[in-house]
Amino acid sequence: MNISLRQLRAFLAVARQQHFRRAAESLHLSQPAVSRYIADLEAELGIRLFDRTTREVLPTDAGRYLESAIGRVLDELEGVLSHVHSESERKRGKVHIASVPTLSAGLMPRCIADCATRYPELTIQLHDQAQTMVLDSVRGGEVDFGVAIDPPLTGEFDSERLLRDPFVLVCRPDHPLAKLDRVPWRKLQGLPLILLDYSSGSRRLIDHALASRGIEANVVQQTGHTFTTYRMVEAGLGISVSPALAPPPPTLVTRPLTPQESREVVLIKRRQRSLSPLAALVWERLRELTRAQGALPQ
Hints:
alpha/beta, 12 strands
């Protein structure tokens, strides 16, 4: 049988209205179109569905049976189609995320690419910002949520720890420390250091790791971006301490620092503010991706 939804909807409208013109109006169709759908349906089924008079249109026994059965089925089908449409609409739109530069480069590209594949109608707009600006953007509602480093516990944000990112030593292959498999923090005593400045969420953590071990930091340069830091290390101006999620170019090497010190990567949103369905979708996808690569803390 070759029966269409249009034919069934036209049949149901005529059976309920018992009038072709009123049925056509309810369907926003012309009366000839409705009459054609009914005629085609009767021809396909090989049975008359309506008794027609000049004043009314009444279902036959077969028509009444079809009306009772098909009405329930079509109502259920409309519900299913409406749900599918709602799911599609839920995944269409734009999500704004603020992220510190090391995470914008080391973590977010994979998430954006994954969401582009899974949800083609979803657009993620990344705001690549220093830590202080990430906090301001979330606080001011300019973005849906942020990806930050150990934000201060001020009560302004709801947060969820995403992963721990260990600090590593970055140096040239010909540096004496490159010969070690692991480098104790105390080995950094007196060596020229090139570190990110205090706009970075990592800097205060690095300072604490050094100070807590009584190491006097010999900071010769402070930069606003790891790219600049690495170029200075390449030039032989010093060594650096950097998050593992911000790997240097192949011209440099990294070595684990012992004992391990890490920064906490945290998802943050405005306190007691619900995420939009789209933003919640991306938030959860970030968690799933880090869990899949074993980066979520236990």
